[in-house]
Amino acid sequence: MGESSLAECLSPLFNPVGKILLNRRGICVIPLVMSLAGGYPIGARTIAALYKKGLMTKSEASDISLIAVGAGPGFLITFVGISLLGSKESGIILLSSQIISMVVLCLILRFTRKPDTTPDSEISPVTTLSASEALVNAVSDSVKAMGAMCGFVILFSVLCSVLTEGLNIKGIFADILLSLLEVTTGVTTLSGKQSLIYISMLTGFGGLCVHLQIFRELKGIPFSKKRFYLYRIYQSISSLFATKILLLIFPVKEAVFSSIDYKPQVNLYSTIIAFGALAVTSVFFILSLHKKA
Fold first, then answer.
1. Any alpha helices (H) in 22-87, and if so which ranges?
2. Other CB atoms within 10 Å distance of the CB of residue 270
3. Rounded (5°) CA angle 231-235-240
4. Which of the 8 DSSP states describes residue 120?
5. Are residues 209 and 182 in contact, defined by beta-carbon separation less than 8 angstroms?
């Protein structure tokens, strides 16, 4: 969406929502919607695209970077809810809690942020790309982002395996450490041990692997990493309470949380091979681009 003119077209429609939640223009709501629809790095990628095109000010991009962090329905409903917990309802509660927590973050930002000193008249968007150019750029950027995401996931999977299997870190300390490092490994580990409330808290935080992917997308946009992690704490806490309230209104049977007897294991040997294959492929790809240039 950030590459095409669609963001400009939809921005006025989001102006009322942006005014209420953020006291910002509607363009600032688009990364939040994309984050909730597509998953963790999508919000940051949309912010970078809109900022690059001149559709967002530096202050807007910096502020929205703090809150456009969330897992998509594919992860929360399909993977966590259906695959791990065996309950679509649990996934819907997780997604609903995340939406509520993002609204809470918007309100926190609205009443704590510094006023934007850049008037709208100074925002001068660059020339909008044609549909074909936008499609080509979107596909190219998506492939690059997917490669980077796979690299981060493999790296942290190896790290988690080394910590638990190689260094023999076990118990609650291992669960906490894995959860802070990589969200997929964390929810897989906790799915048979902890209730939905703690899983919601974990998905609200995201994990270091996700955070590094977001930092990569936001390269060139000045924002405070201290504030970023402060907002991750806010998001974790608000997700926890939102899930607790939703479970009181829409109770889910506790048996769901202990229905998974098999816990997926990361094979260190095969992961290292996969990492090596990815690295070699990436080198050849970069060299081929260099020769074409």
1. 30-38, 40-52, 58-64, 73
2. 10
3. 150
4. G
5. yes
